[in-house]
Amino acid sequence: MYYFYILYSKRRGRYYYGHTSDVDIRLKRHNEGWTKSTKSGIPWKVVYCEQYPTKSEAIKRELEVKNWLKN
Q1: Distance CA 16, CA 35 (A)
Q2: Total domains, the chain
Q3: Which of 17, 28, 36, 71 is most buried by a 10 A CB count?
Q4: By C-alpha distance, which of 35, 23, 30 is closest to 9?
């Protein structure tokens, strides 16, 4: 299974959108500073998550939501 997820950083007042096969491990990595784009927002928390059978479907959903934000 794959997931589309949304994180929130209270520290920065920002959201982060992504996809992964393991939300718990991915959140841990975000909060350990593994990702340059989220390092300054530690701590992050999961505020939304959707499950998909394939990676391509999770990526498609991530891009769909990101495109909503551009408009």
Answers
A1: 11
A2: 1
A3: 17
A4: 30
Q: Strand 2-9 to strand 45-52: parallel, antiparallel, or no bridges (unpaired)?
A: antiparallel
Quick one: tokens of 69?
A: 């934000």
Domain that holds residue 28: 2-70
- Tens-place pLDDT, residues 20-67: 999 999 999 999 999 999 999 999 999 999 999 999 999 999 999 999
Closest CA to 9 of 29, 36, 39: 39
Asked whether the bond before 43 is cis by omega within 30 degrees of 0, the reply is yes
